[in-house]
Design brief:
alpha+beta; ADP-ribosylation fold; three-stranded antiparallel beta sheet; 6 strands; about 20% helix; DUF952; DUF952 domain-containing protein
Length: about 130
């Protein structure tokens, strides 16, 4: 499916609980990611809607900020660019738009730029509007 134009600078993985600190080379997959066979990611514009829809009952979230170009280059969680069985970002239509899915790779300290904790104040859309994306 088509990627957005222009391409985003960053993608985000939403976590309902704190990731290990420091980040390991490979973060464990969520049950949803494991069952679907890819890692669900969002653009900054998609994060508030995704958070409200899937994480409405939690009071805090952690956002993993990932540079799009790093993932698109095939960089795995260990920070190495794979040449064989290269991880791929695919843009796929999901109900309300096109979302990035990472196939064949992991997230970890080698491709996650930063981790941000966000506390819910009202809706996720209102709480997340305070972030610098």
């Amino acid at each position: 499916m088509p990627a957005p134009s222009p391409l985003p600078t960053h993608l985000y993985k939403i976590l309902p609980s704190a990731p290990p600190s420091p980040l390991p080379e490979r973060l464990p997959l969520s049950d949803l990611d494991r069952n679907d066979g890819y890692i669900h990611l969002s653009t900054s514009e998609q994060v508030p809607g995704t958070a409200d829809k899937f994480f409405g009952s939690v009071s805090e979230l952690w956002l993993l900020k990932i540079e799009y170009e790093v993932l698109a280059a095939g960089t795995d969680g260990d920070g190495k660019v794979k040449t064989e069985d290269k991880p791929q970002v695919k843009w796929e239509e999901v109900g309300r738009g096109y979302f990035a899915h990472l196939y064949g790779g992991d997230l970890g300290r080698g491709n996650v730029k930063s981790v941000e904790k966000v506390e819910k104040r009202g809706t996720w859309a209102a709480s997340l509007s305070l972030l610098e994306w």
